[in-house]
Amino acid sequence: MKKIAIIPPIPLIPYEQNRRLERYQSLAGTKDFVDIRQLKGGPLLTDNEYDLFWASVYMILEAEAAEREGFDAVIIDCTADTGIVEMRQSLSIPVVGALEAGIEEACKRNPEEKVSILALDKDWKRMITSKLIDYNLLDSISSVECVGLHVYSPEKEKGLDQTESWRFFQNLCRAGEAAAAAGAGVIVLGSTTVIAEREKLENHLGICVVDPGASALRKAKVLIEKKCLKEYFTLKKENKIRYGDVIRKNLGL
Fold first, then answer.
1. Rounded CA gap, 161 and 164, in Å?
2. What's the rounded Cα separation, in Å, for the pair 117 and 234?
3. What are the distances in angstroms from CA 213 to CA 97, 119, 151, 210?
4. Rounded CA separation 146/125 (Å)
5. Are 188 and 210 in contact (CB under 8 A)?
6. What is the mean pLDDT of residues 68-95?
7. CB 40: neighbour CB atoms within 10 A?
8. Kind of pairing, strands 184-189 and 95-97?
9. Fold match between domain 3-97+214-251 and domain 99-212
10. Mean pLDDT of the chain
11. What is the CATH code of the structural domain delimited by 3-97+214-251?
12. Letter string b/e over residues 111-143, b meaning 16 or more CB atoms within 10 A of that residue's CB
């Protein structure tokens, strides 16, 4: 049985934690174990780079805890791939980012097609574009379109109501149509919070739509099976200080 830790960039309210857990459990099947980790602190939402920086601190702490508990891989449940470099330098297990995995899968499915990403808003468009530059993948992207609405809000204890869900899907369709008009043959959803809409959007557009969270889970399982660690962590030095342990002690976590 593979044990995979799913690390969101924020502390989740119970409804959202259960929603994400049900999603990943359905993708993983009964043979593997997935766990949505609950951060011990950090911002309630990640709307800018400052939020992402502080989120990464608590995400790294949780990733190190998961490795100590015997998990086989870590997935960053966020399309900013927050803390991915730092986690790979700290851990000796695979660390998979949702954005990186989603783009890789999109390019492999249709290598001749351009890829578009549907970011939730202008801030996320900027943060995703910045990460694409880091990955040297910007030339593979035909456009990053903005949806203009979010799925998750910590104030909504039971998620979007029917009207809000309909409005979100309409915006998602418009962004997808803009991506198709820009030449995309494949679309990657720009948030792992977009769960129920992937298949509906694919049917509406008639082109492939990639769920980055599902891509990350598939990639993590392959890496565990093949034990392909070389690309996914930096070899640790002897007697290297684990600063996460220092911070954890100082914060009393």
1. 5
2. 29
3. 9, 14, 15, 9
4. 7
5. yes
6. 95
7. 14
8. unpaired
9. yes
10. 90
11. 3.40.50.12500
12. eebbbbbbbbbeebbebbeebbeebebeebbbb
Q: Which residues pair with 95 in a beta bridge?
A: 74
Task: Please list, in sequence order, all residues whose beta carbon lies within 8 angstroms of the beta carbon of residue 93, skipping any fewer than 6 positions away.
Answer: 67, 71, 72, 73, 74, 229, 233
SS3 letters across the chain: CCEEEEECCCCCCHHHHHHHHHHHHHHHCCCCEEEECCCCCCCCCCCCHHHHHHHHHHHHHHHHHHHHCCCCEEEECCCCCCCHHHHHHHCCCCEEEHHHHHHHHHHHHCCCCEEEEEECCHHHHHHHHHHHHHCCCHHHEEEEEECCCCCCCCCCCCCCCHHHHHHHHHHHHHHHHHHHHCCEEEEEECCCCCCCCHHHHHHHHCCEEECHHHHHHHHHHHHHHHCCCHHHCCCCCCCCCCHHHHHHHHHCC
Cβ count within 10 A of residue 219: 23
Q: How far is CA 244 from the centre of its chain?
A: 22
Q: What's the whole-model pTM score?
A: 0.90
Summarised one tens digit per residue, pLDDT across range 13-46 is 999 999 999 999 999 988 899 999 999 999 999 9
- pLDDT at position 237 is 45
CATH 3.90.1150.10 for domain 99-212: no
What does the domain layout of the chain look like in residue ranges? 3-97+214-251, 99-212
